[in-house]
Design brief:
There is one protein chain. The protein is of the alpha/beta class and 341 residues long. 26% of the residues lie in helices and 21% in strands. The strands form four sheets. Strands 1-2-3-4-5 form a five-stranded antiparallel beta sheet. Strands 7-8-9-10 form a four-stranded antiparallel beta sheet, with no helix packed on it. Strand 13, helix 7 and strand 14 form a beta-alpha-beta unit.
Length: 341
């Protein structure tokens, strides 16, 4: 057996579903998720409660009964009754997994690649032209595929897909992406975002999300600024008692599908003063703002920004989820447990 293991590369290569089955777990896949009884030997919660959740694509897990969470390597170590602080024992578990599931990773560390030089795009000077921000589009994308397996594979129902006018785009600037219509606070269509359907293709030149770029048209410079509105905010017609704010599109779709229609997204970790103003107008003076951010550094940064800006005006509660998890990883019962008075 090789003595070299690249933990990061191994985590990315391992098939979490295969690892679960290797340890005798009856995997019940729903989109990217598996929910079931906790298989961990040291589980201290209820034995007959489906408290264990695993994201099979991202290779992470969380048991809402015993509190254990982590990545695929940490899951295997816990199944082997290995103390995660015991480096040598943890490394042996990783090597065993590599030998069984990823024998092609044998070998020494790879040479560091030189960073590619950035190419500067030369554009004509635009300082003299008037700038128009988020003007309404004079067209709508047609022929989008609402039956594409990406959306249904993530567990979204056709009713949810139709509600948000989502569909796979096969041509143009959003080719091979799910097109997401973007409406400003008045409900005017101001652009489309595009989400890749294969995360393996994500790179610096091919980001997960693509937004409208700056362009010149009819003697004007047209700019798209996502910080000037809230995704799905136009559907909140009157001030509400409770409003959920998230980072991304999919979290809004998931919340809607699970009964939380009054949900909006900042479309990223940045939260602006304009978005703060909109939040205040959407929530009653006696209402509550619920922050449901991703369980990572970016999510914590986002939540703290919302707290800082919105709490002087409205009651704000930060719903903290497990490290490495996203709102779309939460089952309906888990969401209900969070949104309690």
């Amino acid at each position: 057996m090789s003595t070299w293991v690249n933990f990061k590369e191994l985590r990315e290569k391992l098939n979490f579903e295969a690892v679960l089955r290797h340890y005798g777990v009856d995997v019940k896949r729903k989109g990217e998720q598996h929910h079931g009884f906790c298989p961990l030997p040291l589980h201290q919660g209820k034995k007959n409660s489906p408290s264990f959740s695993a994201n099979l694509e991202r290779g992470i897990f969380k048991c809402f009964g015993c509190g254990a969470s982590g990545n695929v390597l940490e899951f295997a170590a816990l199944m082997e009754n290995v103390d995660l602080e015991n480096g040598a024992a943890f490394r042996k578990v990783a090597l065993d997994l590599q030998e069984r599931f990823c024998p092609d990773l044998k070998g020494g560390p790879k040479d560091t690649k030189k960073a590619a030089e950035k190419e500067r795009t030369k554009t004509e000077p635009t300082e003299e032209l008037p700038v128009v921000v988020n003007p309404p589009l004079d067209f709508e994308l047609k022929g989008l595929d609402r039956e594409h397996p990406y959306l249904k594979g993530r567990g979204f129902f056709r009713e949810t897909i139709d509600c948000f006018d989502l569909g796979f785009c096969s041509r143009g600037l959003l080719k091979d992406r799910v097109a997401i219509p973007l409406h400003d606070h008045e409900g005017k269509l101001v652009g489309y975002a595009g989400r890749v359907v294969d995360d393996a293709t994500i790179s610096k030149d091919n980001p997960r999300y693509r937004f409208p770029s700056k362009r010149k048209r009819a003697g004007q410079v047209i700019e798209f600024r996502k910080t000037m509105f809230l995704y799905n905010g136009f559907r909140v017609k009157t001030p509400v008692d409770d409003l959920v704010i998230t980072e991304g599109f999919a979290s809004v779709w998931w919340l809607y599908q699970n009964g939380y229609a009054d949900s909006v997204a900042a479309m990223g970790a940045d939260f602006s003063e304009r978005q703060t103003e909109l939040i205040v107008t959407l929530v009653k003076p006696t209402g509550r703002v619920w922050i449901l951010a991703d369980g990572d550094d970016s999510g914590r940064r986002f939540a703290q920004s919302v707290l800082l800006q919105v709490s002087p005006h409205r009651f704000v509660r930060w719903v903290k989820i497990a490290e490495g998890f996203q709102p779309t990883d939460l089952a309906e019962e888990q969401l209900k447990s969070y949104f309690t008075t």
